[in-house]
Amino acid sequence: MDEPTTEPPHEPPPSVERSYWRRWSKQDIFPEESFRDCSSYKYALSQTCSRLKDRLLDRSSDANELFELPKVSEVGMKKCLTWWDLIWLAFGSVVGSGIFTITGLEARDDAGPAIVVSYVVSGISALLSVFCYTEFAVEIPVAGGSFSFLRIELGDFIAFIAAGNIFLEAIVGAAGLGRSWSSYFASMINTDNPDFLRIKVNFLSEGFNLLDPIAVVVLLVANGIAMSGTRRTSFLTWITSVLSTFLIFFVIVVGFMRGKSSNLVPFFPFGAKGVFRAAAVVYWSYTGFDMVATMAEETKQPSRDIPVGLIGSMSMISVIYCLMALSLTMLQKYTEIDRNAAFSVAFDKIGMTWAKYLVSIVAIKGMTTSLLVGSMGQARYTTQIARAHLIPPLFALVHPKTGTPVYATLLTTITSAIVSFFSSLDVLSTVFSFSTLSIFMLMAVALLVRRYYVKDTTPRSDYIKFLILLFLIFGSSIALTVVWNLDRQGWIEYVVPASIWFLSTLAMSFLPKYRLPKVWGVPLVPWLPSLSIGMNLALIGSLGRVAFLRFFICSAVMLLYYLFVGLHSTYDVAHQDGLGSQNEERKENASRVVC
Question: Cationic amino acid transporter C-terminal domain: from which residue to which, for each copy (predicted)?
Answer without folding.
Answer: 520-569
